[in-house]
């Protein structure tokens, strides 16, 4: 009988994780707010949000539980409504997808899993609070850098005519291709380590304008002109501005050493070529 995996949140990363799990022989159930089917062949989809908790017993017999559902202003909806059901199900493996945003700003310096979190943004503070609740359940915590992949990459931004090359001196971002996220989660299933924290990112923290220029080169189009940060921030939305609040390089050595992950896309260059 196939092992059973329950995934809260079939979003961009969740769908790729679910697809990789079904290909590896797992029986997968997952949630969306609507309960409508998504691009996940073979996955049983249920409705879940803060106003629509899952029925009792739906987690009985599951071998692994993962949440990619972000916290809201009230807290983590999965913990608030399903923590007792997860405890009762006692899966052998529990995981939670968090963010490297919990480290806050380090002026471009390196951070690793031993770096004390010091989030600057409200959404990152909520993530850190959720991490505590999930670690109390025995979860492995995966802190994800900027996620990209087919349909959600600099290549797509350029194709859609939305690309801008904003230059903030010294600013870099760490990234992770969605397929490498899935690879790390599946590797962790074979190496359960309750309460462990892993940074999931590639090897090449890079300035955002460099990534846009490379995407343009792949597409054979002229890159947009560089715009100084002081000029650009007046036209950026508060959400877009917030991405520039933190500046750090993220170490991924623990992911490689403990989970045995070999990145399929060690930098944005390989990743964007695959998106193309």
From TrEMBL:
Q: State the SUPFAM superfamilies in the record.
A: NAD(P)-binding Rossmann-fold domains (SSF51735)
Query: InterPro entries, from UniProt?
Result: NAD(P)-bd_dom_sf
Sorted UniProt keywords: NAD
Query: What is the protein name stated in its UniProt record?
Result: Nucleoside-diphosphate-sugar epimerase
Protein source organism: Paramagnetospirillum magnetotacticum MS-1
